[in-house]
Every structure is written in C-alpha cells, then in structure tokens.
Amino acid sequence: MNKTLSVTLVTAIMLLSGCSEQDEMAAKAPRPIRSVTAHFQELGETVTQTGEVRPRIETAMSFRLDGQLTYRVENGSTVKAGDVVARLDRTTAQNNLLTAKADVATAKAALDLADVTAQRNRDLFAKSISSRAQMQEAEANLETAGAKVEATAAALANAEEALSYTELRAEHDGIVAATGANEGQVVSAGQMVVTVISDADRDAIFDVPEKLINMKTEPPYVEVGLISNPDVKAKGMVREITPSADPVTRTYRVKVALDAAAKEMPFGAAVIGSLVLSPQKLMELPASALTDHNGQPAVFVFNPATRELAYKAVQLTRFDDKSIFIAQGLTEGDVVAVAGVSKLREGESVVLDDEGAK
User: pTM for the complete prediction?
Assistant: First the structure.
C-alpha cells in the first residue's frame, strides 16, 4: 500500500511540475498588439464658429438739432436714396428763414442807397462842392452796407441749412430696420430715429478667440451655412477685424463679406462659419494610442530590435474623439501601439498583430 502511495505522489508531483512550466511559458509569451506605422502628413485644421447674418451697410440716422417729431416712416418700409424718412416740426426754422430773407433784402437796399450816396459825394467833391470828410463818410457807409449784405447772406445760408436739418433723407436704397422715436415725441440731437439697412450686400459677423486671429487660412475664404437649413451656403472673405478684443469676452469681432448666394440668408439668421487653417506637418494617430508618462502625453513605440515597447513623449497640436495630431516626439516610420495601451508596460515583449498593422 505504501508502494502504491509513493507512485501516486510521484505522479502528482510530475503533473504539477509540468503545469507550472506551462504557466511560466505562457506568462513569458509575447503579447500581441494592434499597431500603426506613423507617417508625417500635410494636415490642415478645420475650425468652426457660430455667427449672425447682418447687412453690410447699416445706417443709424439722427437729427442734428432738437425738436418735435412730426413724421416718421414705418418700420419695415422700403425707401429709395433721397426719400424723407423723418421730419421735425419746421415752424421755427421756417420763421427764421423768412427773417433771414428779409434781412438780406434790407441789407441789399441799404447797400444800393449807400452806393448812390457815395457816388454823389465823389461827384460833389470833384466839383469842390462837398468836403473830403463827407466823401470819406459816404465811402465808409458803403463798406459797412456791403459787409452787412455778406453777414445777412451767411445768416440766410445758415437758416436754409437749419431748415434742411429738420428732415432726414435716406442716404441709400434700403429697408427701415428699426425706429427710435414716435410721432409727437421730442427728440434730442444725435438720438437714433431711424435705422436703414441695405439689402444689396450681407456680412456674417463672428466673435473669434484671440488664438485664431493671427492664423493663416488655406484657402483664404470662409464657408458659411445656415444653422436652420444647412443646404443654404455661401462663401465669404474676411473684410474687417476689430483692432482690440472685447474687454469681457476677450474675442475679436470679425466681419466676413458674403457672396451673392447669401441672398437666401435672412438678416439676423444664425450661421456656422468654417475655415481651414494652413497645413502643418503632423502625424495623425487613433485617439486610442494616447497614454501618459510622468504626467506628459505619450505613446508606446515598438522597438523591432528588442521586440519590446518603450514610452515616447509626444507634443500634441490638437485632438478629437477619433484622432490625435502629433507635431513632435515621433520619428517617421515608428510603429505605435493603438489598442489596450492602459494594460501595456514599458519593456514588455510584444508581437505585432498583422491584422492591425499598417
């Protein structure tokens, strides 16, 4: 019985020893990994911003003097260049004009009389009938009368101009987009009364972060589409950038001149503008390749000589849900692990999975 027990024990020990050796061999077997080969490419980044469609020409009109509003066009009215869009009470201005005209007439009559008097005194002085002092006095009165005519003529021009200031006339064809006062209301000089917009040209207005302002684009135009109807699209060129940032948002106001296709975009409509930044030499890898090493972004690179993995720190320019874009850190042709990187370790022996290799 003892002999049988001994044989059994020996057999068990041999079986256990065999299992241990198999486990050790399995533990040391290289791990298969999915990988890609990294290559530099000329890649441009597409950036998008939301904005609003606005008229290129928008004129806020106001009076140059105070007064009571007696007429104003209705909001939404279509006007032509030169049309009266608002008028102040003209009674005082018209009375001042009549007074100025009367003053001019009086001054001209006085000038005519002074001219006749001066000529008569010249003739009398030539005949030694009147004195030199009388002639000089007549000449002085003539000069005064001439100056009076000039002064009253200037006052008449001012009165005519003041009367014209009681009317606001459209500077261009367009649509009345806003009003700032109603008939019967007393308005102040400089107060917006009517805003006229031109329907001829449209701009897309964007508030752009500082980092995008100095970046070059390729091509140099902006693709703009309606948010409510993405099929309605237009192209535009940047025509104006505010020289200073908004003190609160730290963004720059950018105006993009849109082409004729923008006619289908109503004023005030929300739009998305997209543009492609100038290409850079970058490596694009799957986002699943990214890990970190000592707090820095890194990837696992396969060393074909040792068949092991090694960390390589990388410099990212940008990333999204699907890809990372690397500017520095990798060498052309590096083989990078792209799956299960959280389970990989530096120095680990691996074998490439041909199905995942590129």
Answer: 0.57
